[in-house]
Design goal:
By secondary structure, this protein is α/β, with parallel strands linked by helices. The protein has eleven helices and seven strands. It has two domains: 97 residues, ATPase, nucleotide binding domain (Nucleotidyltransferase, domain 5, 2-Layer Sandwich), CATH 3.30.420; 169 residues, Nucleotidyltransferase, domain 5 (2-Layer Sandwich), CATH 3.30.420. It is globular and about 65 Å long.
Length: 300
């Protein structure tokens, strides 16, 4: 993240170049940590999309070379499915369950009956939750990535300091919208003095964070109730937010719903979640040809 922080967001060209520089080293280190070599590998799972096309192509090209040279199956994984099944790395998650995928680019609810039976219930109509955090951080000049910064700042703040809007929270839909919250936050910030903001920044951050989390918790448990399931998986980069984790576990205990959230290291993009999703696909005989190409947009 440090190479992108100065630009206030991910720069695709820099990201793909760093992938080229490090992919071989990362694979070597992973094999060494596992006490394995490429000769022990029986299949290769790789992200097909969605994502930055340049970075995806680096990974796909490297995965193809391993699959071809070792004559082993190649499995193409949907990035979003990787997040959905990340909780299975540490937990035995029974089907069916509701999945809330909440990250920098995606905020969506799914009904998951099986690893190949996933129904989209609703998604953001504009900004994702992660984008809302990044925008709020940028507005007050705190930097990037915004989610981590606001989470840290909010720990010493009051969540009830200011009432920001909770868009679409009471509507009979599983869609989300965070652009109005971003506008409200900007208007609030620009209407106050620097002295006021400096004095109350932790409270303001906590209030903003609570507005995002309120919507996510409300929508997710509405889906749980409607589809009468007993499991809820919350994953994606924003699922590393400490207040979000606290609220979901509290609500799960109150409503007697099993809430599964991956460890923080498994919430952000990682190879382990792609491995799990690839393993599930491989088990059902889903493999790819060496003509595999990347997709910047790839829906479930």
């Amino acid at each position: 993240m440090e190479i992108h922080a100065r630009y206030g967001g991910v720069v695709p060209e820099l990201a793909s170049r760093r992938h080229i520089e490090t992919v071989g080293f990362v694979v070597d280190e992973a094999l060494k940590a596992a006490g394995k070599s490429l000769d022990d590998i029986t299949a290769v799972a790789v992200t097909k999309g969605p994502g930055l096309i340049g970075s995806l192509l680096v990974g796909i090209s490297y995965a193809k070379s391993i699959a071809y040279s070792k004559n082993i199956p190649l499995v193409a994984v949907n990035h979003l499915k990787g997040h959905i099944f990340a909780a299975m790395i540490e937990n035995d998650v029974p089907y069916p369950f509701i999945s809330l995928l909440v990250s920098g680019g995606h905020t969506a609810l799914y009904l998951v009956k099986d690893h190949n039976d996933i129904t989209l219930l609703g998604a953001t109509r504009d900004d994702a939750a992660g984008e809302a955090f990044d925008n709020a951080s940028k507005i007050v000049g705190l930097g990037y990535p915004g989610g981590i910064i606001i989470d840290r700042l909010s720990k010493s703040g009051r969540a009830d300091f200011h009432k920001f809007p909770r868009a679409m929270i009471s509507k009979n839909t599983f869609d989300f919208s965070f652009s109005g919250l971003k506008t409200s936050f900007r208007n609030y910030i620009t209407g106050e003095t620097n002295e006021y903001l400096e004095k109350n920044l932790s409270d303001i951050a906590a209030s903003f964070q609570e507005a995002v989390v309120d919507v996510l918790v409300s929508k997710a448990f509405k889906a749980v109730d409607k589809y009468n399931v007993k499991g809820l998986v919350v994953s994606g980069g924003v699922a590393a937010n400490s207040r979000l984790r606290e609220r979901f576990y509290e609500a799960g205990e109150e409503k007697r719903v099993n809430v599964y959230i991956p460890s923080k290291a498994l919430c952000t993009d990682n190879a382990a979640m792609i491995g799990v999703a690839g393993y599930l696909d491989l088990g059902s005989g889903t493999t790819e040809y060496l003509t595999l190409n990347a997709l910047s947009r790839y829906y479930i």
